[in-house]
Structures are given as C-alpha cells and as structure tokens.
Amino acid sequence: MAVVVATTDNFETEVLSSDVPVLVDFWASWCGPCKMLSPVVDEIVEEHSEFKVCKLNVDDQQDIALKYKVMSIPTLIVFKNGAEVKRSVGVIPKEEILALI
Q: How far apart are CA 52 and CA 45, in angstroms?
C-alpha cells in the first residue's frame, strides 16, 4: 500500500471512514525532525499492508492540524473507526511507531 497524501478534500474518506487503522504523519517541509522520521514511515508502508499510512503537510492543511490540536511536529496520530486512539510527538524509533498501531 502506498502513502496517501491527506488533504481537506480526502481526509474524511481516507482517514475517518477507513475500514482499517490509519497512521497519519503530520509534517512540514522545513521541519528537520520530520525529515528524519519520513524515511522510517516510508519503510513501514513498504513492510505493512494491514493498516493505511497518510502524510499531512501542516502548512498546506492547517485546518486539519488545528482541529486535531497538532502543536508540534512531527506528530503521529493513529485513527481507528474515525477516532483518534493514540498520538506521538517527535521522532521515535520504528518499533515504537508500530506499537502505536
């Protein structure tokens, strides 16, 4: 399964209405820690198909970032059945990301 770019237009369909758990990576292009975390998230996508991974650029999708009170990036939020179930802020190892899901 490929990474889905989450936007205002598709967030409801791709994240909130998903029938599988969704990991959303809130990031920005200017964020150094986000650049460190991104390859790890990409690696997870390649290895796991039992859940969906979306990346959401907080500069382009500020309304969604505000709605979910994302104040620091990178932030990872896991959604199940349309609701936030877990959250992590900052760079964490791959094993910890998988433990969130």
A: 8
CA angle 58, 62, 63 (to 5 degrees): 135
Q: Quick one: tokens of 3?
A: 């990474």
Give the tokens for residue 44: 């997870």
The residues, ordered by sequence, that sit 6+ positions from 42 with a Cβ below 8 Å of its Cβ are: 3
pTM above 0.90, yes or no: yes
Is residue 31 among the annotated active site residues?
yes
Say which amino acid occupies 7: T
Active-site residue (options: 4, 6, 31, 44) = 31
Given 4, 15, 23, 34, the catalytic residue: 34
Summarised one tens digit per residue, pLDDT across range 22-76 is 999 999 999 999 999 999 999 999 999 999 999 999 999 999 999 999 999 999 9
Q: Is 54 a catalytic residue?
A: no
- Work out the burial of residue 2: count CB atoms within 10 Å of its CB; fewer than 13 is exposed, 13-18 middle, 19 or more buried: exposed
